[in-house]
Design a protein that fits this description.
The complex is a heterotrimer. In chain A, α8 links the parallel β8 (222-225) and β9 (248-253). Chain A is of the alpha/beta class. Chain A contains 11 helices and 12 strands. Chain A has a 6-stranded parallel β-sheet with strand order 2-1-3-4-5-11, sandwiched between helices. Chain A has a 6-stranded mixed β-sheet with strand order 7-6-8-9-10-12, with helices on both faces. Chain C has a domain at 25-93 and 154-261: P-loop containing nucleotide triphosphate hydrolases (Rossmann fold, 3-Layer(aba) Sandwich). Chain C contains 9 helices and 10 strands. The chains are: A alpha/beta, B mainly alpha, C alpha/beta. The B-C interface holds B 2-10, 12-17, 202-205, 207, 210-211, 214-215, 217-219, 221-224, 281-282, 334 and C 77-78, 81, 87, 89, 91-98, 102, 106-109, 111, 120-123, 125, 133, 136-137, 140-148, 151-152, 157, 160, 185-186, 189-190, 193, 217.
Chain lengths: 331, 335, 264
């Protein structure tokens, strides 16, 4: 009798303890609310939070570059009890003081997709290896050109942006040209690169940049683009000039619209990145920290896959169907 | 009688102007044209592909969207106002017309009219807030800028709209004059500039726009309905943003919810570079066209030279300051 | 002055209250053909309220207003303008960046005849230029070019443009509110000359002014406003300037004014 009661009470106490244990509160702060990349991140975070029994708070800046909005979000989330904050920093340097304040309060801060500057300002970074993303499409382009002399145009992001530099330089490296290493913020140059222009990752500006490059050098046969909207703009420009069949376009991102364009022959190959994975890993780390007090640290590569419609020997790639299954954005 | 002064001379009261020097347009209007000329001469020496008909046709296509937005912006700035919402309203117009055509199956002309109708409505909202509620244009259009952006993102679900009916992208097509292909959209832009130039110069309604910008109280006292003039200007600007949306759709071939983000400031830059005063009441519409072309020429010329684009930003910034300084100085000197 | 001078404008018993303050307390007013009538009064005497009622800027609570013997009711300055009353305001009501011709015709632009004017709404700039030259020549205003922007003119010249505009379009009355207030001596005299010429061309002028020397220089009669009423109408040729000021401030009560100083 005594034993049965003891067990019963122990069970009840255990249940009570489990119910009384607070769910871990994790905050996710993206650059903007509307970019499909971040929408996918939120989805991934929400799923992981639900599966792990955590409470997810989300917020974002108003626009790309809205640092103040992100700082406010950090403060509000800590006040709401968040013990882990996942953030895609709009301004890698400007956000550091707010991050430091959070970490001083015992909050774990993980950067997603873009690093803070300095890298060590956050506990950890879960991001795409943007340099590797560039290398993959550079290797594919080299194989696709099959020894023909390359006349390359690069449609970059904007001056001084680390992600833009990493993808650009990775591409040059993968293509087999001398290039700055992954830490550099400078855009590498090469003799084969006959034109470099800024697209701001924007479709219309990519179109303008491509037009101007074609004016400079009508024999361009390979175009590296910072992302898929810029690639789409470049394609429109090439099509107007009647050159779209002879010019190869490669890109980075792996969004659903971009993968569709790979299938349509607009983009030859794209490096797909995984925002959902970044967010999910971040949430799991946050749950782990709340439950076991274990922090993550360092840089974790969330993976990048080459998606190409036409597989080439010597370069590993996945087909468009796989890319579509894994893509982010609206299918 | 006290003080019979100099001007009591009756016969020679009205004298003819002083000669050709006085007939020249003031520095504020000649300046932009000279700047464009100099830039073109410079780039022509750097790359022999610059000074071709094909290249110029390209530059005009590249600036035609901002160029048309800047027509509306010029009208607003002439009334001593400013419209920060222009780019976002244009993007909304583009999304509305493309979605209506592609998803609702509306015939292209009707969808286009609806898109322009939406942008005109935003112009009306801006105008009403400025004239009836008497809020400063800067604040009003800052608000409508955000509202337009949000509606665009929500309505489009952040997706670009593709597979447009050919009638919608027709203005992006070209025809040949001699050896050069000219885009229909560019012709439309030039025609609109000429029409507005005529309206501002030769009609009473156009002159009233200048009068309201220069001295709204004096204008009101002459019996002109200044509120109606202002309202009309904002609505007309909205219409131009809608036409710009059509040109943007025609050029890129899609409805892009992220279009127009830098066009806000690009349009204002074109207006300022073209010699129109931000204080209102002064300026030329054709100057705005030159201002828009200057930016396009800089971008094109520097790319042809292989110069990093950061220099384009630098030079544009310097030119803006020079343009505003010239405007200020020429006013102080009673030019 | 003829025995029964023609009355161009007349007001009887105008009353205007703003809350507790009575600005016009049964004010009378008479403007005769071919005269310059100066209106003087201390602050709060009802001078500006009187003028606002005459120019349509305010609507009096009671009393009547007659133009050429016929009763009129102005609901806005535009009504007054349509009735042929032009007002030159204290603040310079010109668009400085626009030319003199444009300012003269602002709000009353001439259009070209036929298709160009009716359908394209084109302005007849040649005709407007001609007319502005003619009008300014009639008023003997010396300005080099009608196409130069108003801001290139001196203050006095600008005011002449404003006065010239009013004189050019007025059919019955020209009202001027402190036209020489912001001007120096030379320029002020320029404007006074112009005011005289306006009168000589047959337009009566109502001149509000604080500047006694100017008033005594040009006025045919002086209307003194005091405490919301008309205190007296003086003859500037007979009364001295200091006495006129005394009447205005109330130091000399109206009934003690010698008869020959009053205007008949």
């Amino acid at each position: 009798m005594q034993l049965k009661h003891t067990v019963l009470y122990a069970l009840l106490a255990g249940c009570g303890a489990a119910i009384a244990a607070e769910p871990p509160v994790i905050g996710l702060i993206t650059k903007t609310e509307t970019n499909p990349f971040f929408v996918k991140m939120k989805e991934g975070a929400a799923e992981a939070a639900k599966a792990g029994g955590a409470k997810l708070l989300t917020s974002a800046g108003k626009t790309d570059g809205d640092n103040a909005g992100q700082v406010t979000a950090i403060e509000n989330m800590i006040a709401a009890g968040a013990k882990t904050i996942l953030i895609t920093p709009s301004e890698s340097k400007a956000i550091v003081p707010a991050i430091r304040k959070a970490r001083d309060k015992g909050v774990m801060v993980i950067a997603l997709d873009s690093p803070s500057d300095p890298l060590e300002a956050t506990d950890a970074l879960f991001a795409t290896d943007n340099y590797k993303a560039g290398v993959l499409i550079g290797q594919y382009a080299k194989a696709a050109l099959a020894g023909k002399p390359a006349k390359i145009a690069t449609l970059d992001l904007l001056p001084g942006h680390p992600v833009g530099a990493q993808r650009h330089n990775g591409f040059l490296k993968g293509f087999g040209l001398a290039a700055p290493d992954a830490k550099s913020n400078e855009l590498g140059k090469a003799a084969e690169v006959v034109c470099m222009a800024d697209s701001f990752g924007d479709r219309a500006k990519g179109q303008t940049a491509m037009e101007n490059c074609l004016q400079k050098n009508p024999d361009i046969n390979l175009v590296y683009t910072i992302n898929e909207p810029a690639a789409a703009g470049a394609f429109t420009a090439l099509k107007s000039a009647g050159k779209e069949k002879n010019v190869l376009i490669v890109s980075v991102d792996g969004g659903c619209e971009g993968v569709k364009n790979v299938g349509a022959g607009v983009i030859a190959a794209t490096s797909q990145q995984y925002p959902l994975k970044m967010a999910a890993m971040g949430v799991e780390a946050g749950i782990d920290y709340a439950r076991n007090g274990k922090k993550v640290s360092g840089y974790t590569d969330t993976g990048v896959t080459l998606i190409a419609a036409k597989p080439l020997p010597g370069v590993e790639s996945k087909d468009v169907k796989t890319g579509t299954d894994l893509c982010w954005g609206k299918k | 009688m006290l003080g019979q002064e100099v001007n009591a001379a009756p016969a020679a009261a009205i004298l003819p102007p002083r000669g050709w020097k006085e007939k020249l347009p003031p520095l504020g209007t000649l300046g932009p044209f000279l700047a464009l000329l100099l830039a073109c001469l410079f780039f022509a020496t750097q790359n022999d592909r610059f000074l071709t008909g094909e290249n110029f046709s390209l530059v005009l296509q590249q600036v035609m969207v901002v160029g048309v937005i800047a027509i509306g912006q010029t009208l607003v700035i002439l009334t001593a106002g400013i419209d920060l919402s222009c780019g976002m309203v244009m993007a909304l117009g583009g999304i509305v017309m493309t979605k209506l055509a592609v998803e609702m199956g509306l015939p292209a002309p009707l969808a286009i009219l609806c898109g322009i109708g939406v942008t005109a409505l935003f112009g009306l909202a801006n105008g009403l807030l400025v004239t009836k509620i008497k809020l400063p244009p800067f604040i009003v259009t800052l608000g409508t800028l955000n509202i337009a952006f949000a509606i665009t993102q929500l309505y489009s679900n952040a997706q670009t709209v593709t597979d447009l009916p050919p009638l919608m992208t027709w203005l992006g097509g070209t025809f040949r004059i001699g050896g050069t292909s000219v885009a229909f959209g560019v012709v439309l832009m030039l025609a609109m500039y000429l029409a507005v130039w005529f309206w501002l110069r030769e009609t009473a309604a156009g002159r009233h726009v200048y009068a309201v910008g220069n001295n709204p109280e004096a204008t009101r006292l002459t019996g002109i309905a200044t509120e109606r003039v202002l309202l009309g200007v904002y609505v007309l600007a909205g219409v131009f943003y809608g036409v710009a949306a059509l040109l943007s759709v025609a050029r890129t071939g899609v409805g892009d919810p992220n279009a127009g983000q830098t066009e806000n400031l690009d349009a204002i830059t074109a207006v300022v570079l073209g010699g129109t005063s931000l204080f209102g009441g002064r300026g030329m519409i054709l100057g705005t066209l030159i201002g828009a072309v200057i930016v396009g020429v800089l971008r094109n010329g520097l790319t042809l030279m292989g110069t990093p684009s950061v220099y384009q930003v630098l030079i544009t910034g310097i030119l803006v300051i020079v343009a505003v300084a010239i405007d200020q100085l020429s006013r102080k000197g009673g030019n | 002055m003829s025995a029964n001078p023609k009355l161009v404008m007349q007001a009887k018993g105008l009353v205007k209250r703003y809350g507790q303050v009575t600005a016009l307390d049964g004010a009378d007013f008479e403007l005769r053909a071919g005269e310059i009538l100066a209106v003087i009064g201390d602050n709060g005497a009802g001078k500006s309220s009187l003028i606002k009622a005459l120019s349509g800027a305010t609507i009096p609570d009671s009393g009547e207003l007659l133009l050429d013997g016929k009763p009129v009711h102005f609901r806005s300055p535009i009504d007054a303008r349509r009735a042929g009353i032009e007002t030159v305001y204290q603040e310079l009501a010109v668009a400085a960046a626009m030319s003199i011709t444009e300012n003269l015709f602002l709000g009353r632009e001439l259009r070209r005849p036929g298709f160009l004017g009716n359908v394209l709404r084109m302005l007849d700039k040649k005709r407007m230029l001609q007319e502005s030259i003619t009008r300014m020549q009639e008023l003997k205003v010396g300005i080099r070019s009608m196409t130069q922007p108003v801001e290139t003119l001196s203050g006095g010249q600008r005011q002449c443009v404003a006065v010239g505009r009013a004189a050019a379009f007025a059919q019955h009355v020209v009202i001027m509110d402190e036209p020489t207030a912001a001007l120096g001596v030379k320029e002020g005299n320029m404007v006074l000359d112009l005011i005289r010429r306006v009168r000589d061309r047959g337009l009566p002028v109502v001149l509000i002014s604080h500047n006694m020397p100017h008033v005594f220089e040009v006025a045919d009669r002086i209307h003194v406003a005091r405490l919301g009423k008309r205190a007296a109408v003086l003859d500037p040729r007979k009364i001295s300037m200091s006495d006129a000021v005394a009447v205005m401030t109330g130091a000399m009560p109206a009934d003690s004014i010698p008869a020959e100083c009053l205007a008949h």
